[in-house]
Amino acid sequence: MTDSGARSVYFVSESTGITAEAYGQSLLSQFGDGQFITRYTPFINTREKAQALSNELAHRAEAEGRKPIVFATMVDEDINSVLKHAECHYFELFDRFMPELIEITGLQPTRQSGISHGLVNPDNYEARIDTINYALSNDDGMRLNKFDQADIIMVGVSRSGKTPTCLYLALHFGMRAANYPITEEDFEKGDLPDELLAQKHKVFALTIEPERLAAIRELRRPNSDYASLRRCYKEVQMAQDMFHRHSLMVLDSTTHSIEELASLIKKSL
In this structure, how many other beta carbons lie within 10 angstroms of the beta carbon of residue 139? Predict the structure, then answer.
């Protein structure tokens, strides 16, 4: 196989694999010219499953003519040893950082799976579920009277990226995030609801380029007035006028990913 072919990459964990995937994807993003076929492989939590994956990696290496790349978070040393000797280039997060951390802190790791995602700590897990439920039940301004319970409130025109950003804040940062879409009634009145302005210190505004907004809305409602460029320009401009009038922090979802928007909000708090 030539170097021009796509390379197989595995994200492996004995738990959810979220950390391994984030770790690996961050590193791979630095190699923009590379072609990668990624495979998400969570819950490799027994020696038998690890051996089966090791066999798969050997077959993949033989078929492709080069070893797959594996990013892993494997706290169990026995399972880890199986994959460490597999036919792959093995990058294990804990192996690379744990020895130095043990030396620095003088502490021994628990070597329990799932701790960072609340699977072992019931209080952490319940708090995470609570924030996700709050984001879902306070999506699209469904409960204006619950905004006082929010850590942050996102406001913006329809389809500007409020809901996915709120869910990301809930899932990754444990924040109670509500959102409110500016409605036709708000545009006619020329201002945001009083319930929202009463919590102005929690409000973050999302804006978006009208062309991008029109493209997103066109996928949802093709050939509609809702998706027309004229209407998108009008709504974005009127929304920005409201944001500036109330001195709200404005973030642009055209140029920032959901992860970046969430991080900017977290940092500002």
Answer: 18
Task: Give 1's pLDDT tier (boundaries 50, 70, 90).
Answer: very low
Measured on CA atoms in the order 140, 141, 142, 148, is the torsion positive or negative?
positive
Tokens read off for 5: 């072919």
Integer Cα distance of 4 and 152 in angstroms: 46
Contact 140, 153 (CB under 8 A): no
Helix ranges (H only) for 38-121 are 47-64, 77-84, 93-105
Q: For the residues 102-110, what does the mean pLDDT come to?
A: 84
Q: Are 109 and 41 in contact (CB under 8 A)?
A: no
CA distance 145 to 133: 16
Asked if residue 169 and residue 256 are part of one domain, the reply reads: yes
Residues 159 and 240 in one domain: yes
pTM of the full predicted structure? 0.65
112 and 126 fall within a common domain: no
Q: Do 166 and 246 sit in the same domain of this protein? A: yes
Residue 154: strand pairing partners: 179, 204
Any idea which of 3-7, 159-163, 166-170, 239-243 has the lowest mean pLDDT?
Answer: 3-7
The C-alpha atoms of residue 178 and residue 51 are separated, in whole angstroms, by 45
* H or E segment and range at residue 152: strand 152-156
Do 158 and 258 fall within a single domain? yes
Looking at the fold, whether 49 and 140 belong to one and the same domain comes out as no
Which residue range(s) make up the domain with 46?
A: 7-116
Question: Distance from first CA to last CA of the chain, Å, rounded?
Answer: 50
Q: Is residue 90 part of a domain?
A: yes
